[in-house]
Design a protein that fits this description.
Length: 164
């Protein structure tokens, strides 16, 4: 099996322990992507089956398992991996990137700037007016330098996809 798509057309993934950076970018794009730094293959397969997720891996032995959807990445570098997945699954971040927590994968919620005033540096509070927060881990995000750097990296990878 090469991929699993939910009835609403969305993709849900679980990335193996070697694909942490890829998982972070998939989350940034808004895709529900689980990642565990250490997890036995059998447990990852069980989660994939139970939650209708596609396993992303570069491990050929893992990819040979036929009881869950598995996508064997050929690309080595992150740019190329993002491009490969974008082509294969039709992935696109849309106009509103960064909809999931980069750390725990929970969907982010918009929060009023006043509500997080004491939780961010003064300069950040004074500079930005749109904030999102993870309801699970409490992490707060805004469209600062890290966001812009990730967006540029992602757009470069996906623009190369469009030209291919």
């Amino acid at each position: 099996m090469m991929g699993s798509t939910l009835q609403d057309g969305t993709h849900r993934f679980i990335a193996d322990c070697h694909l942490g950076r890829l998982a972070k970018y998939l989350r940034f794009m808004g895709y529900d992507t689980l990642f565990f730094p250490t997890i036995p293959d059998t447990e990852m397969i069980k989660i994939a089956r139970d939650e209708e997720r596609t396993v992303l891996t570069r491990d050929t032995a893992l990819a040979r398992r036929k009881n869950v959807p598995v996508y064997l990445l050929e690309a080595l570098g992150l740019h190329d991996q993002l491009r490969e997945l974008a082509v294969h699954f039709g992935l696109n971040p849309g106009d509103d990137a960064h909809r999931r927590c980069l750390i725990c994968n929970a969907p982010l919620v918009r929060v009023c700037a006043v509500a997080i005033r004491n939780a961010v540096p003064e300069q950040v509070y004074a500079t930005f007016d749109t904030f999102r927060q993870c309801p699970e881990c409490g992490r707060i995000y805004w469209h600062g330098d890290h966001y812009r750097k990730m967006l540029r990296f992602l757009k470069t990878a996906l623009e190369q996809t469009a030209r291919s």
